[in-house]
Specification:
This protein is 12% helix and 13% strand. The chain is α+β, with helices and mostly antiparallel strands. The chain has a domain of 36 residues.
């Protein structure tokens, strides 16, 4: 079996893993009720999406 010739240093390992972190969650304000929601998702509070009521939300 193939075995690494030399140990990977902490620095090289860290550089390889530099892009593995989770990106920060993007949030926008709902145009109807103003709560912070993910873009292109139905608002769970009011049930609106793109200015139209799609589902019955918690406050509706």
């Amino acid at each position: 079996m193939a075995v690494p010739k030399r140990r990977i240093s902490r620095s090289r390992r860290g550089n390889r893993r530099a892009h593995d972190a989770q990106p920060a969650l993007q949030l926008v304000a709902c145009s109807h009720c103003g709560t912070m929601i993910r873009p292109h998702h139905i608002c769970p509070q009011c049930g609106y999406y793109r200015g139209k009521q799609v589902i019955v939300g918690k406050t509706a």
